[in-house]
Amino acid sequence: MIVGRRETLVGRVLLVLLMAVTVVPFISLFVTALHPAGTYPSGLSWPDDPQWGNFADAFRSAHMGELLLSSCLIVAGVVPLSLLFGTMAGFAFGHLRMPGHRIGFLVFVLGLTLPFEGIITPLYYQVRDLGLLNTRWAIILPLIGLFMPFSVVWMRAHFVTMPDDLSEAARIDGAGTWQLFWRVHVPLAMPALSSLGILLFLWTWNQFLLAIVLVDDPAKRTMAGALGAFQGQWGTDIPLLCAGALLILVPTLAVFLVFQRRFVAALLQGSIKG
Amino acid sequence: MPEPITGRRARRARRPRAAWLGWLFAAPAVVMYAAFVLRPLTLTVQYSFYDWNGIGASKWVGLDNYRRLFTDSELFATIVHAFELIVFFSFVPVLLGLFVAATIRGIATSRLATVARTVLFLPQVIPLVAAGIMWSWLLSSTGLANELLSAVGLGRLTRAWLGEFGTALPAVGIIGAWVLVGLCTLLLLAGMSKIDPALYEAARLDGAGPVREFFSITLPSLRQEIGVSVTVTVIAALASFDIVYIATQGGPGNSTMVPGLEIYYLAFSEREIGMASALAVALVILVLACVLPVQRLTRDGSR
Amino acid sequence: MAHGLINRPLITAVTLAALLTTAACSAPGSDSDTGGANASAAPVTSATCGTGPVTLKGYFETGFPLPKSLSDEFTKQYPNVKFDIREDQFAVITQNAPRVLADDPPDLMRLPQVSELVKDNLLKNLDGYATAFGWDKWPASQLEQMRVSSAGERGSGPLYAMGLNFSMTGVFYNKKLAAQIGMTQPPATLADFDTLLQKAKAAGLVPINQFNGGATGGLAFPLQNLMASYGDPAAINQWIYQKSGATIDTPANLQATQHLEKWLKAGYFSSDINSQDYATMMSRFIGGKNLFIFDGDWESGNLDKQMAGNAGFFLMPPAQAGGKQAAMSAPLTYGISSKAKNADCAAFFLNWVATNQQARDIAVKVGGSHPMGPSDAYMPAVQEGTVTASTLTAGATIGKDNGAMDFIANATGAIYAKSWTPQLQKLAAGQQTPDALLKSVQKDYETQVKN
């Protein structure tokens, strides 16, 4: 590839600039979190006496341990089931291609663009009538439903690329459809599955609307929902709010940094297919 | 290796059984989807024809709620705001992303670019709520944005960006742009890396400059990626909720009220379930109406 | 085959759609019970917390330590009672009130405007407790705002809420800054007040900080004070109580709104008023960044602590010298959900707050406001010269002038969020005229009352 030196330089400068703009809000959040609680620090000034204790205070007053556990429980409820259901349906629509699969699949595809606000009102009454309001199930069950379009479309995209001959061979060996699915296709679908898992984890963890509407107790919400409540409670104390917000970000950021390559790949593919 | 004919016959013969099995496999997904998406969606449509406060009895009002949506200037304004947000959530990130991606294409494999991949993704990973909190602080009257302005001698421009009628909506838009620009850049960059380098070399030999190169090679090859970026960001704009809820709650006045937030307020604070549902139906249709043409334009052409 | 491909999915889809619609064809809400919680209160002989363990589920307002202090003290005296408290900012409570009361009923809840909650049978009728505990023998004005008649008008009828204390609003000022502009005593007339504001502005001070950002329309405080200076507080109460034919769009109120606009145009409020939240206002005032704030005596205790000796309080001056004074004065309303599990214990707590000596101490020291209860009840001693002392005195003046008004933001459940807040934010930004503001609020009010 032929690239001029000047172009390279301009590119680098531009990239650094863009990265700076991306990172500055995080730094500002961090610096503000170190100011004495209850003050209104201005701009990006390093405090004379950094209050590292703010993080401990925020951790305690926000019951961060409980929040982490709650979010983990919700993720544990949403992600495995969504993966299983999505994979089974993706296998059916993409590989078994039973009669009616086109229209069935189309109904799922149409759900891809549905804004959650479109169904939140009846969802509230439905969850209430099920007696699940203010429980984690109020977030888990609707989220599984709401994730179905994407999961199904995603997994179907994988299964349509699987050659029919593969199944033919397995069937001749006497495998039933379930064995065919579980023994042959699921292992082959692992890369697609793990990317989907990452996306679902992220979307569950960051889900806000369902959390604030369906669950009042912040300790039973997702991290994002808890952060909303945290703002309601500590919005009056900027440094503490910033410390809390940072703490709430840490788990996702940590997971992201560990799995960053998968993450980036998953998110990019996720947008293309979605 | 079985004979082709036998194979086909075998498949035919199996069809009826597989048919049922296929739906059995799809059943859990279908049930969850029907129970927690299709049923509420149907109910949204139904509620939109009623006047109901969510507690007492309801009254059938036909199309009244929809009529109000188009005559009540406050409600209609929410839709206008959503479209204004598209400029910031969608046009800015896509155009900026195109520009940046085209400029850094040459160094896409350098170490700096690898680091950039991680950094630019950060806003995608954090909850939008957190982005809202960070930025409300940056854009406040004593925030970093004003401090920077003062530092470069533009002190008279400083203001509470989220608190003034003229600037609140654009300020919300900028938060959205910040969240989405990294995603768009990396999407487009990934698309560019798939373009055959020989095309560029040929163009260079023809004496094309970077601008002509961009318009005659890069842009046409990126149809699909641009379509995806536009789709994702347009949905983010029309269905925006988290950022506005945290940063402005729709104020000042109603200058940043968007459909998502208005639905929430109508349904859960003003208890006009019918009106909230009508707006929800309008939003769902609006999203489809914006996204389907984009998909059609960018997908069909490239295949 | 082609036919099969088209038809079968169609049939499936139609069947699916039919299934879904039948699931949803009855009108929403038609099966909801309309049990006569409103009709009358069951007679109560003795309401106590018993001796077994009780957990009272509370939903309180963030940023106000009073209910928390009271509940702690209560647990100390009655160890079998524990509190499970959730907190939110008032705007959030206002939004959540109906559905929380209906679907996740608290035993004790900080209430926004009550009339719609009563209409929907969400609040417990407290008349039974009132008789049992003798609340009906207290000064009637204390409970008036929490009564709702069967016609939906407030001011008379059964009792649906109770106060932890009753608060007063007016103007707080920074004594040091006041001395700077030669203010030695509170203004006697509105014109005097204007002069002070002008002087402060000329001296380079920020005359007033007022919260008016996001979902808060704090300009309603100065506005209503101005309304009371220009007009009759009783007329404003009529409107707030939803008496038929009442209007906010009166000549006196127009003058008041124009006066507020004059202040805004003169730059008496800080320029970022539309992004200032309540906490910012307090932190700036305590930090000595401005001269006045319009606020209530719930801050008295706090200001005595954080600005000891440096904060003063006065009631909004009348338009003419010697005129009657008025103020927004309202109970800090707490109610019991009609579906509460521990209603008796909650009522016992509310009675304890008004009658127990320690509780009354806390109500004054922590809350800064006058406790509820009989007029001859124990009153804690308050140190001379404190803000708390001056707000309590002001309370007496208001009582004498019969100038207590409820808050204009309490006229209907949605009027604050839906009308006052956006309209006042527009006024502050110069995007709304006083006349159109009042007309618009009145129009919203009429639709909301009709519903």
From TrEMBL, chain A:
Residue runs in coiled coils: none
ABC transmembrane type-1 domain boundaries: 68-259
GO biological process: transmembrane transport
Name the UniProt record assigns to this protein: Sugar ABC transporter permease
Pfam families from the UniProt entry: BPD_transp_1 (PF00528)
Organism expressing this protein natively: Paractinoplanes ferrugineus
Gene Ontology cellular-component annotations: plasma membrane
Membrane topology of the entry: Multi-pass membrane protein
Family classification: Belongs to the binding-protein-dependent transport system permease family.
Keyword Ion transport in annotation: no
Keywords: Cell membrane, Membrane, Transmembrane, Transmembrane helix, Transport
Transmembrane annotation, as ranges: 12-34, 67-93, 105-125, 137-159, 180-205, 238-259
Localisation: Cell membrane
Keyword Membrane: yes
From TrEMBL, chain B:
Gene3D superfamilies: MetI-like
Family classification: Belongs to the binding-protein-dependent transport system permease family.
Biological processes per GO annotation: transmembrane transport
Protein name: Sugar ABC transporter permease
PROSITE patterns: ABC_TM1
Domain of life: Bacteria
A Pfam family annotated for this UniProt entry: BPD_transp_1
Membrane-spanning parts: 20-38, 75-102, 114-138, 168-190, 226-247, 273-294
Family matches, as InterPro entries: ABC_transporter_permease (IPR051393), MetI-like (IPR000515), MetI-like_sf (IPR035906)
GO cellular component: plasma membrane
ABC transmembrane type-1 domain: residues covered: 75-294
Cellular localization per UniProt: Cell membrane
Membrane protein topology class: Multi-pass membrane protein
Key words of the record: Cell membrane, Membrane, Transmembrane, Transmembrane helix, Transport
Automatic annotation (TrEMBL), chain C:
Signal peptide: 1-26
Keyword annotations of the record: Signal
Keyword Transferase listed: no
Record flagged with keyword Signal: yes
Protein name: ABC transporter substrate-binding protein
Naturally occurring in which organism (per UniProt): Paractinoplanes ferrugineus
